[in-house]
Amino acid sequence: MKIKPDTKGIAWTCRMCGKCCDSPTITKKDIANISGYLKISFEECVKRYLNYFDGLKGEVKEVNGKCIFLKGNKCSIYKVRPLICKIRPYSPQLKNGELILTYDGWFLENCPGLFMGDLPVEEEYLKYGIAVVKYLGVEEPTPNGLFEIQKRKKEENKKN
Question: What is the domain extent for residue 39?
Fold first, then answer.
């Protein structure tokens, strides 16, 4: 399986602001990694930290609208953070029958780390993109109009 980056002239660097740390969907392997890191059983991890688990994937609980593992804008389980967290702000999507790695619509509208530029997508994100497709599926397409809106906003910010 191949995945091609498609960032449309928008680059990104993480600002460690915690804005994107909501309640992620996580895989069974993520849960196993987190439970091992926290030195608790798989079942205890599910009970304590997940809203649900269907046998393959689950959803992490939130506290005040943020991931339960976020402590003062820092991930308390960063070394074993879930797969979906590793890929952010990117999103694996299908475009004209081709698998691409682009920006998730939420990030285009909310992430302060986005800026105009053509930085290459790091190889690790391409690998994470393929893993997300394998374990969680392809994500909803980002509307093309969002890219144009964000480009205009970034250009206006440069002028001010």
Answer: 25-81
